[in-house]
Amino acid sequence: MSRDVLSTARHVLAIESKALQGLRRRLGKDFLKAVELMRKCRGRIVITGMGKPGFIGRKISATLASTGSPSFYLHPAEAIHGDLGMVTGQDVILAISHSGETEEIIRLLPVLKKIGVEIIAMTSGTKSTLARHADVVLNLGVTREACPLNLAPSASTTASLAMGDALALCLHKKKGFREADFAQLHPGGSLGRQLLKVKEIMRKGSGHAVVRSQTTLSQALLAITRARAGSCTLVDASRKVQGIFTDGDLRRHLRKGGTDLLKQPVSQYATLNPMTIREDRLAAEALNVLRSKRIDEIPVVDARGRAVGILDMQDLLKAGFV
């Protein structure tokens, strides 16, 4: 019995592998046309498919969207009951149908033509109704499903998914999609966090207290209060960092100071020539610095060494690093 199961599994994988190898051999001008059509799309890439191809379409749409090509999935049955209103003439339709004769998709074609949308067909039916009305046909070339009855979509859906990945990732490359772009579209996940830059989570503007070195301690404390922060950055006339004063510094010096403590220059109680970090560095790198140096805050500077913000351990906590 175990041998039969393994034999069936190997047979399924062999058929699906054959389908993928066939796709690889057939890639050519039609694929290039499809990529160019999608690259020039001024609207969104709309994916449609019924049943199992619909699930594949949802995944392709998600991959496109997450790699910089705006996309959404359109259920063909819902489309003919009003959802076609989401489609504009600036969009590109990618219709997935193994046979090319899926009734719900065929019913959409006349309306899509009226809208003026360009259609890419992903099908094994190269002489089908869908193929005849499409601007570009991507031939899946699947002649047999991996299902023992040759009924359940299996090799065809595997080929569709692989073709969708190829389209999305070729677009990704042609558009020059970068790590920073990926992070912007994935702010909540671990991948996005790994690519976050310091400038994206640092405190700046009114949230960053900046004072001159000769500023009195009382004025520095007022600046910290206004910024609702735990520190202020000391700078010179060109905004180069000279020091950092924290609430911890205040506590340490309160015991030593006399009645005129608040009237003295804040530089007397600050940490001078502190460690800084560039705004274009990864936030994960900043976390390592704070932990290794056992500090809670670090001034952030631009390429010219000018103070542009402050990064606090709490900022990293909010971003999900701690």
CATH level 1 name of the largest domain: Alpha Beta
Q: Report strand %.
A: 15-25%
- State the end-to-end distance: 50 Å
Number of helical elements: 15
Order of helices and strands: HHEHEHEHHEHEHHHHEHEEHEEHEEH
Major sheet attributes: 5 strands, parallel
Coarse morphology: elongated
Spans where pLDDT lies below 50 across 5 or more residues:
none
Q: Find the structural class using helix and strand composition.
A: alpha/beta
CATH topology type of the largest domain: Rossmann fold
Number of domains: 2
Helix percent band: 40-55%
* The CATH H-level homologous superfamily of the largest domain: Glucose-6-phosphate isomerase like protein, domain 1
Please give a handful of descriptors for the protein shown:
elongated, 322 residues, 2 domains, four-stranded mixed β-sheet, Rossmann fold, alpha/beta, CBS-domain, single chain
